[in-house]
Amino acid sequence: MSEIQVERGPRAFRGNYRWVICALLFLAITINYVDRLIFGVLKPVLEVEFGWSESDYANIVVAFQGAYAIGLLLVGRLIDRIGARWGLGIAIGVWSLAAAAHAGASSVIQFAMARFALGVGESAGFPGAVKAVSEWFPKRERALATGIFNAGSNVGALLTPILVPILVLAFGWRAAFIVTGLSGLVLMAVWFLVYRRPREHPRVTHAELAHIESDPPDAPGKISWGQALKRREAWAFIVGKFLTDPVWWLFLFWLPDFFGKTYDLNLLTFGPPLVAVYLLADVGSVGGGWLSSRLIHRGWSVNRGRKTAMLVCALCVTPISIAVFADNLIAAVAVIGLAAAAHQGWSANLFTLVSDTFPKHAVATVVGLGGFAGAIGGMFIAKVAGWTLEATGSYVPLLAFASVTYLIALGVIHLLTPQLKPAALPPA
């Protein structure tokens, strides 16, 4: 018998505890990104102290990206088996300990080992968060909830270049890794104290539980990598991630270089443009999820509402190809910020496609497969960006790719899932 509170009286309150869970997911993704990006912010300091070459730094970065890709392939099925509470909770602990372990590293191999462990732990962040949203929100609210927790990636990208230099100047670079790692361990403790499935949670009212479970029940069935890869619905997500995730990786790792080369900015002056871009990305993350949820709330089908929101996002990315030719920095920031916002709005809806088409017990598996594809795409774009810039010295080909890839991805998604119907799974 669950401990769900049953409201009484004529002024019964449905309750909104599910948004507390969403806030925890937002904090988890924020810390995830701080731990991910701190190494890049400290790159100049570490290169001077240890005498690294660019190849040494690249090898350490590849250790993280490789572990992240492999982890995404593996953690999805694990989270589907053990649930979001244990799956995401353990992951937070792993990546926090790995982040703190950087403080004890003093060689390329030791840093690579710490980054590898960080990549394994962080790979469970998004599959676990999407799994939690599928457990706590009905379909009509999932894109909004996903957009909110996904905004944590932009907040993390904003906080890292602000907080890390303060910590380094006050206590040294090793302390910066320790502080960020400890913050994750605190969050892990809170997560285990707070998170339960809705039906098991004492803070969930009867009315809120009814709202959370208002969708038709999931069909029984089982899922494996092989079974998922036989489903067109899974390939819609996988292709979408493979084609569009590289644009976000391009933003994360190449925007400072773009602003520096195009507008003669440096470490002290490209901060404000980056802050503006990621603030706009935050707005897009929440706004894109809100748009599809609003359309569905107004009576649109899930298929029509979700794809309309994704089309709006895809169209908002197209002007990015002219960013190189913008007359001034403000115009360039506006165009790139619009594209970053559109990507995050697109991402919120793309993640939600999985819970639209797969039952809760299969969500993390499919998200892991798509995340793996997106990480591989990110590794490709890094290589392509290097070759392109060395050969041409221009960002035009890269931005041209970014401007059309969302429309191509949406076309493929629609061909694979024209109605966004639940995937047919083999019987349990």
UniProtKB/TrEMBL annotation:
Pfam families xref list: MFS_1
Gene3D superfamilies: MFS general substrate transporter like domains
Database matches in SUPFAM superfamilies: MFS general substrate transporter (SSF103473)
Keywords assigned: Membrane, Transmembrane, Transmembrane helix
Keyword Membrane in record: yes
Record bears the keyword Transmembrane helix: yes
GO molecular-function terms, A-Z: hexuronate transmembrane transporter activity
Principal cellular location given in the protein's record: membrane
Ranges that cross the membrane: 20-42, 57-79, 86-105, 111-130, 151-171, 177-195, 234-255, 275-297, 309-342, 362-382, 394-416
Recorded topology in the membrane: Multi-pass membrane protein
GO cellular component, as recorded: membrane
Cell compartments where the protein resides: Membrane
Domain spans labelled Major facilitator superfamily (MFS) profile: 21-421
Name of this protein: Hexuronate transporter
Taxonomic lineage of the native organism: Bacteria, Pseudomonadati, Pseudomonadota, Alphaproteobacteria, Caulobacterales
